[in-house]
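Q: Sequence in, structure out?
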Amino acid sequence: MLTVLTKILDQQRATELVDFVLIFALLLALTMLILFLVVLSRNRRLQREMRESSAELYYFLLPRLALDGNDHQLIKRLAGFLPFPQQKHRLMVNPQIFDFCAFRLVAAGQADEAAVGNLRSKLGFPKSAEDFLPVSSLDLPPDMPVILVQKGEPALRGGLIYNDESSMAVEIEGEASTAPADGPITVYFQNRAGFFSFSTRIADREERILRLTHSDTIKRYQRRRYARKQLRLPVFIQPYHGTSAALKSVLMELSGGGASLQNPQRSFGVDQQVELSFAPHGEKFHVLSQVVRVSKGGRMIHVEFQALEDAERERIGRLALRQ
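A: Exactly. Output:
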């Protein structure tokens, strides 16, 4: 009799325990569902506010810039290359973002350069000398960053401080003792038209200032828009505005326009927006990118940098050359 009673009590405790676990699981699931709905509602509200504020700015600027219906349609197509297409007002206020989207649109054959150039002029963006192919070193504008390379010596960074018919002056970054010796020097520079080089010699020097002879032979360093260099560099990658943690990877190729890197756990695919973070030699980079191609059975991804300021693109180009 006592044994039967004990079994009944044990079954009751087991039933109570199962009921408790089920109730706890249901409450936990309900809590997670509520949190998910709250976050979803908040994100939708933020997206709606972002769309409304962007639309308000866009339609405020449209008549003031005297844009017509054709311009409106062109801006809509350009906005398709933005991370958030609803923020098309950014195309009207930021020349770097406009140029990025315009390059992609023309390359895709969805617009001609004349129409894009006409819209750029209407928006009042200044036409930069960097848009043109250089014919001679006389064409280089002041403040142009350059890299000097002499055989058997480390590359030196500098900046053009003046340029006249007799010579050009470059200020070397670093101590005067690092200035190159007399002899042939190759000067590398980059603008939006490409990456170029020319040969020169030192005509005179004063501390960190080098006066260099001019050259009428400008060579394209690579046919790519940006010089690309093979390397191995640690990098962290994560989805753009995603909630997942950054994954560690390795950059295999780098240029001012994009990069190739290992695809950790085959986590990323074509057209996905990602953020890259890397810090070689203590110099930090944080770049918004888009995956444009996947190769080697998904083990490698190739990304294109997006909405990157010219100064930051130049920094990356210098990094690629130094590695």
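The chain is about 35% helix and 30% strand.
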